[in-house]
Amino acid sequence: MKNVISISVGEVALKKGKRNFFEKKLLGKIKAATRDLGSPNVYRELGKMYVEVNEDNIDKVINRVKKVFGLVHLSPAYKIEKNLDSIKVNSLKALKEAIKKRKIRTFKVDCKRADKKFPVNSMEVAREVGAYILQNTEDLKVDIHNPDIYVYVDIRQKVYIYTEKIYGYGGLPLGTNGKGLLLLSGGIDSPVAGFMIAKRGVSIEAVHYHSYPFTSERAEEKVKDLAKIISMYTGEIKLYSVNILNIQKAINKYCPPSEMTIISRRFMTKIAESIANINNIDCIITGENLGQVASQTMKSLNVTNSSVNIPILRPLIGFNKTEIIEIAKDIETFETSILPFEDCCSVFLPKHPVTSPELRDIEESEKVLDVEGLIEDAINKMKITTISI
Ligand SMILES: Nc1ncnc2c1ncn2[C@@H]1O[C@H](COP(=O)(O)OP(=O)(O)OP(=O)(O)O)[C@@H](O)[C@H]1O
Hints:
Pfam families: ThiI, ThiI_fer, THUMP. By secondary structure, this protein is an alpha/beta fold. It has 2 domains: 2-167, VC0802-like (2-Layer Sandwich), CATH 3.30.2130.30; 179-387, HUPs (Rossmann fold, 3-Layer(aba) Sandwich). Helices cover 40% and strands 20% of the residues. It is built from 13 helices and 15 strands. It has helices spanning 19-34, 58-65, 84-101, 122-135, 189-198, 217-234, 245-254, 260-278, 298-305, 321-330, 334-337, 359-366, 371-381, and strands at 4-9, 42-45, 48-52, 71-80, 106-113, 141-142, 149-155, 159-162, 166-167, 179-183, 203-210, 237-243, 283-285, 312-313, 383-387. Strands 1, 2, 3, 4, 5, 6, 7, 8 and 9 form a 9-stranded mixed beta sheet that branches. Strands 14-13-10-11-12-15 form a 6-stranded mixed beta sheet, sandwiched between helices. Strand 2 and strand 3 (48-52) form a beta hairpin. Helix 7 packs antiparallel against helix 8. It is elongated, with a radius of gyration of 26 Å. The structure holds adenosine-5'-triphosphate. Adenosine-5'-triphosphate is lined by residues 183-185, 187-190, 207-209, 286-289, 292-293, 295, 343-345.
């Protein structure tokens, strides 16, 4: 029975002086992700990590662990005694198990010996195990260049045998790179943007703007559902819900209609900056993408940037929509994102939004508004929810 998950770390292992710090963080994240699945024993050994499991919940544990950022791949493995007989028997067993699931004609034994005290070198182990498998199977051949399957033998303090590599997302453990505030709409792009930045080790909080009662409660529920899916990767998310209807009404009343979108966007960004400053958050994250809509031309993005001092990260800036959708499907936000919803941005949508705004014109238009007062009022009334799976 497979009794352990063997985990290969990625960039974490390259962090020379800080490797121990990153590995400890990653270990903690793996523990946290599996705590409610019986708190399996999680340990590290010579640059790899292991989760001890029983066969009953191995799939559940794998599904959780593969969403932890910082690991490259994981393998359900046999953890066995360190002797050649045991290695042979269990390698054959692992291969036979794989044969039950798919057609396999060729194999290769790939042995690594981190424990140099083990008396047989890795080439010799591979040769002995290969010969044993050939003696005990029919119709199988060795192919060292392009085998249907690899039998991995990893000799460490114990020996680990596996045949499968399940790919994780790589990146860095959460919390090793500060905290970001994700501007989370109900659309396809912003959840992907949050995922991309979280993958680089940034903890995530989220803000959603709505225009209730012009937008529905259902639209807000949808955003919570999206935050819940993102929390599968990031752990618990603090969600700030901010009603900007009064702000939109004021812009609608006093500013040129074509500037509605860009001025609203500047308000959203300023509110996000205030929330970030209050909560020790280092950056804002948006799903903006160059040229997608009027507020996402280079000029519009610059005018938005000028409203704040905090860095704005836009990880999707150069992506095509099809590429964004591919990631959205992979991280399981797509199906929820495409459900119909009303976004606050479409409540006072101008017919002809300005696409080349000049900062001085926009600042001039904003002079008639009580910008500080409107922001303060919106923040005072915002609701905070903690979202987790
Ligand atoms: N109601 C909202 N609440 C919070 N953030 C928002 C909201 N609307 C837009 N944003 C932020 O602004 C970005 C650009 O939004 P916009 O509607 O212009 O484009 P989009 O490509 O449709 O984005 P998305 O697919 O994420 O909704 C979003 O990705 C999101 O980060």
